[in-house]
Design goal:
165 residues, alpha/beta, Maf protein, five-stranded mixed β-sheet
């Protein structure tokens, strides 16, 4: 794990621990990479409850409770699905916060409307679900790493807003 990823995972963990919040994950295109980075930090069991790699649509529906209609109407790679995945992980693990990532890592699978590198990252909290749409230009592994990095950055930014209220 690179130094920057370790720093992000450590920063997120310190904030979660300080605030007494528990995190869960729902990963698709990142394939468990976020969980890997988080669990590389000693003491992460204090704030990380677990995660699901829901790669297939069936896994998104059965494990995370993403409505079949959501995937049919908007697709597995959509804001609506990312939001439902984050909500589902939060419920499944009874965590305070949940991150979800769904996207097209490439090099295949892209379309005109949904190009390779398109990713949706959602963060579910009790009172809201935030979502970001991003497009990466790297290869498959770079897209996965950038998505995982952006997820941790989104979490840290959210936690910092809690600390200032």
């Amino acid at each position: 794990m690179g130094g920057e990823m370790e720093d992000l995972a450590k920063s997120a963990g310190e904030l979660l621990k300080k605030m007494g919040l528990a995190l869960s994950l729902a990963e698709s295109c990142t394939g468990g990479l976020i969980a890997h980075w988080i669990t590389n930090i000693s003491g992460s069991s204090n704030y990380f409850l677990g995660g699901v790699v829901a790669y297939s649509n069936e896994a998104k529906e059965k494990t995370l409770g993403v409505p079949h209609e959501t995937i049919l109407r908007y697709g597995a790679v959509s804001e609506e699905t990312a939001r439902a995945m984050a909500d589902g992980a939060r419920r499944l693990f009874a965590s305070d916060l949940a991150l979800a990532v769904t996207g097209i890592a490439g090099p295949t699978g892209g379309t005109l409307g949904k190009p390779v590198g398109l990713v949706y990252i959602a963060l579910a909290a009790e009172e809201e679900v935030r979502c970001e749409r991003l497009i990466w230009n790297g290869d498959r592994l770079q897209n996965k790493a950038q998505s995982a990095e952006a997820s941790l950055e989104m979490l840290i930014a959210y936690l910092k807003t809690l600390g200032t209220e």
